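A favour, since you know our structure tokens better than I do. Would you make up a two-line entry for one protein for me to read? Write everything out right here, beneath this request.
=====
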Amino acid sequence: QVQLVESGGGWVQPGGSLTLSCAASGLTFTSYVMKWYRQAPGKERELVASISTGGTANSVPRFFISRDNARNSAYLLMNSLKSEDTAKYYCSAETGILKYWGQGTQVTVSS
């Protein structure tokens, strides 16, 4: 059974940083592209970062994605956080037609 478990969310002041983690199990982690999405209330889910099986990373400004294949984990470092970054953040594991989601972790940026 595939499981993706996000952690590391919480409350942070504007300008702060936060690192989210996604622990994967039940799949061959090295075969999956890992992605981070976010969804704010009333908005559609949007892609914020992805990292290929070979480690090629792409992300929106201020965010950095990484993966540790030995730990079956992906990470999202978020810097200089703004109130508009407030959302629920989800990780996904994707390969071909297979796509798995975690339950998400809430990030709230507020003073």
The chain has a mean pLDDT of 97. The radius of gyration is 13 Å. Residues 28 and 47 are 22 Å apart (CA to CA).
